[in-house]
Design goal:
By secondary structure, this protein is of the alpha+beta class. The protein is built from 17 helices and 31 strands. The longest helix has 21 residues, at about 240-260.
């Protein structure tokens, strides 16, 4: 396991920093000018030097800082000694020497304007951070020894599988539903630009985001989610509307998985790195991990539900008659230490909600049959979530041996998907699985994000000591499938927002699936004399499990209609004298359709027919608009 002793740097792309030295903390403090110092448009690098940090660490820090300055296109830097980033600090003399070494190396070449806050002082400071996804960046640099030589490496725990994946050389193909497999460079992508975008993204493996994708603007404007200033870019806050949408998605996917036949469990979020099964699995899973210490032990935060479910299954008494045995957990949360440059909005997070379903199978043939069933489940889920199979592309990752032995099965997966799929073929197996398929959403920046996925795992039954008794009474390890029918819940919302951003760009009307719309019906009384009618109407509508609210603000009718449209409310009803006189007939503005004359019963019936059996939750915000705080400004 990699060492946790590091130099820690927090780099912030800032509009300005203003600081003022207050008093000396140590006798060897540097000289400092009196009064306030302000520098505009710069990167502020808060630095904590730890014990054992040396010149090699300093050189690596300079490389990382230069790289980050280039990424955010800024050539102005302030080095700011900041002891509060660590509890394992170097002595003052050593720390000052290292910081001065970094300062000196950065000034060479004259391409960077370097400022340095005085070392050894208590300072008051004011800081304004720029509002883009790459503005905040944490750099951890460690020193590990081997014989007489030293090397530097990031403290994020990186599995052997991920290191191998980054060096992986693959063969790429397009596999058509007919079974025709065409080398990628020979395939004609005319009319299939989305698949081409997926291929380009996967082959180049460039995950960083250079500009803000449209869904970030929409998630803020619709008051769904936003960045949390007290956290990092990989942990978001969800407002009431976002929490409602998340909860509905979680309930829907969970119900579909249970109907499919899974048993639902709950497992811990942190695990001992020294556990024999976990230590080896850690290095077979392609992800970066969060490491923590507790009572003298080193733990990692789970990056999936696998180990909890596998450790549980190890204690089961299982017969071949019980297989396939399906085990499910909705992990809130799973944790992955994604690279800072890859974090943007809801697309890629460091803490996320993942519906995670495993199936223990007696052999490869049963696993293949089960995978086809799970593919059909995932197709249904993607469609019912409102993303639609037309908006996703399939990728398959497979070893050469497994492909050659199971070509008909793999072609059947693509045939059931209904469109050509991208295939990445490996000559050897680097991970625990021999085959993995994904449904990928391609966003407005041509970035691909995996949603639904499933894998055939040939290692972990043995690794975790999971056994079943076969027909002959022999104890055997199962083949394990790893499926998420939807992918991360946050990423589902990202895909819906990106899809709607695309619709807006095409001049079409954006809208959430009706069952995911926070407000499904908005009532707008022309004036206060029609409020009681609206209240009675609201009670009648909501008694049929429909979310309805009333815009009772003292605003013009046209403004309230406009505001409802900006919220993507599917049904808007203005209530005035005409509606009162017409009694049971309403003029209903149906989003994307126009005005329809409907009775109240017809309105209720139409909504219930569209929502069908989807989960329902009541509004989690006040029903009267005047009582709601202005969340987004």
């Amino acid at each position: 396991m990699l060492t946790l002793k590091v130099m820690k740097i927090l780099a912030l792309h800032s509009n300005f920093i203003e600081y003022e030295p207050i008093e000396k903390e140590i006798s060897d403090a540097e000289d400092a000018q009196k009064g306030k110092v302000r520098v505009d448009d710069l990167v502020v690098a808060f630095i904590a030097v730890e014990q054992d940090d040396d010149d090699i660490i300093a050189s690596k820090a300079v490389e990382e800082i230069r790289s980050w300055l280039e990424k955010v296109k800024c050539n102005r830097l302030m080095l700011y000694p900041y002891a509060h980033l660590s509890s394992n600090l170097a002595d003052a003399k050593s720390a000052l020497r290292i910081i001065n070494a970094i300062d000196s190396m950065l000034r060479k070449g004259n391409d960077i304007v370097v400022y340095k806050a005085p070392f050894g002082w208590t300072k008051a400071f004011t800081l304004s951070i720029k509002g883009h996804p790459l503005a905040e960046h944490s750099i951890h640099i460690s020193n590990s020894s081997s014989s007489s030589s030293k090397s530097t490496t990031a403290t994020v725990a990186v599995s052997q599988a991920l290191q191998k994946e980054e060096r992986l050389v693959s063969k790429w193909y397009i596999l058509e539903p007919s079974g025709n497999r065409i080398p990628l460079q020979e395939y004609n992508f005319n009319g299939n630009e989305s698949l081409k975008a997926l291929a380009d993204y996967e082959v180049k493996k460039r995950r960083e985001v250079d500009e803000e994708p449209p869904h970030v603007r929409l998630m803020k404007r619709l008051a769904i989610a936003d960045y949390e200033p007290a956290s990092d870019a990989g942990n978001l806050r969800f407002y009431p509307k976002g929490r409602l949408i998340k909860s509905l998605i979680e309930q829907y996917v969970t119900r579909k998985v249970i109907e499919y036949g899974a048993v639902e469990v709950e497992t811990p979020i942190m695990y001992d790195t020294k556990h024999p099964s976990l230590a080896s699995y850690f290095n077979r899973f392609p992800a970066r991990q969060y490491m923590i210490e507790s009572e003298g032990k080193e733990f990692f935060l789970r990056f999936a539900a696998c180990f909890g479910q596998f450790l549980m299954a190890k204690d089961f008494t299982i017969s071949y008659k019980h297989l396939p045995l399906r085990i499910y957990e909705l992990t809130r949360y799973s944790f992955r230490k994604e690279k800072s440059g890859e974090l943007v909005g809801l697309r890629r997070l460091r803490a996320f909600t993942m519906p995670d379903c495993h199936a223990l199978c007696k052999d490869i043939e049963q696993a293949k049959q089960e995978m086809i069933r799970r593919l059909e489940l995932s197709k249904e889920v993607i469609n019912e979530l409102g993303i639609g199979l037309d908006n996703v592309e399939m990728a398959i990752r497979v070893t050469s041996d497994f492909y050659n032995e199971n070509k008909e099965f793999i072609v059947e997966l693509v045939r059931r998907f209904g469109k050509p799929a991208l295939v990445e073929e490996w000559s050897e197996r680097f991970f625990y699985f021999v085959l993995k398929w994904e449904f990928n959403f391609i966003d407005n920046l041509a970035k691909a994000s995996a949603l639904s996925t499933d894998q055939i795992d040939v290692e972990n039954g043995s690794r975790y000591g999971i056994v079943f008794v076969d027909e002959q009474g022999n104890r055997r390890n199962p083949i394990i499938l790893h499926n998420s029918p939807s992918g991360a819940v946050e990423r589902v919302i990202y895909a819906l927002l990106e899809k709607n951003a695309r619709l807006q760009k095409e001049g079409k009307v954006p809208i959430f699936p009706l069952w995911l719309s926070a407000t499904q019906v908005r009532l707008i009384p022309v004036n206060d004399s029609y409020m009681q009618y609206c209240i009675d109407l609201m009670q009648r509508i909501e008694s049929n499990q429909i979310r309805v609210d009333i815009d009772d603000r003292e605003e013009s009718v046209s403004k309230r209609i406009r505001d409802a449209e900006l919220e993507w409310v599917p049904y808007i009803i203005v209530v005035g004298e005409k509606e009162i006189l017409a009694k049971d007939t309403l003029n209903v503005r149906v989003r994307g359709v126009g005005v329809k004359n409907m009775s109240i019963d017809e309105l209720i019936r139409e909504i219930r027919d569209k929502v069908k059996d989807k989960p329902f939750m009541p509004l989690n915000i006040p029903k009267y608009i005047s009582m709601r705080p202005n969340i987004m400004v």
